[in-house]
Amino acid sequence: MSFRFQADADLDPEIGRGLRRREPAIDFRAAANVIPDGTPDPEVLQIAAQAGRVLVSRDISTMPDHFVQFLVQHELPGVILIPSRRSIGAVIEGLLSRFAKVLQQVSLKAQ
Predict the structure, then answer these.
(1) Residue 81 near residue 64, CB atoms below 8 Å
(2) What pLDDT shows up at residue 26?
(3) Do 76 and 48 touch, CB atoms closer than 8 A?
(4) Residue 57 and residue 11: Cα distance in Å, rounded?
(5) Rounded distance, CA 41 to CA 9, Å?
(6) Exposed, middle or buried: residue 88 (CB in 10 Å: 0-12, 13-18, 19+)?
(7) For the domain with range 3-110, which CATH number is right: 3.30.420, 3.40.50, 2.60.40, 3.30.450?
(8) Using H for helix, E for strand and C for coil, what is the string for the chain?
(9) pLDDT tens digits for range 36-66
């Protein structure tokens, strides 16, 4: 099973590289050449939605409200918000832990 994520421009590229090293099944697209710095939140959400990807962002101040407004008219697989105070290693471990839990739930439902 492959999970598709889209990094927001505010996310350190090392997070995506670390995730792919640890779990190749994670499809993590970096923001480079996709989401320029300063792209408004509604456009960032639209880019992720058009690609069918979960958005991963550190923008915990404005993204939650924009996400709720976006969902009124659009579909998006989800948004993962990461506080900026978390280290790169902690972010990678947290995302891998969530990935493992989802895989476990999918596996149990398939039985």
Answers:
(1) yes
(2) 85
(3) yes
(4) 6
(5) 10
(6) middle
(7) 3.40.50
(8) CCEEEEECCCCCHHHHHHHHHHCCCEEEECCCCCCCCCCCHHHHHHHHHHHCCEEEECCCCCHHHHHHHHHHHCCCCCEEECCCCCCHHHHHHHHHHHHHHHHHHHHHHHC
(9) 999 999 999 999 999 999 999 999 999 999 9
Domain ranges of the chain: 3-110
Provide the token pair at 12: 């350190």
- Enumerate residues 6+ apart whose C-beta is below 8 A from 67: 41, 45, 76, 79
The dihedral sign for the CA sequence 85, 100, 34, 50: negative
Instruction: Give me 33's structure tokens.
Output: 């050449």
- Average pLDDT value over all residues in the chain: 89
Instruction: Decide if 53 contacts 11 (C-beta within 8 A).
Output: no
4: pLDDT confidence band, cut at 50, 70 and 90?
confident
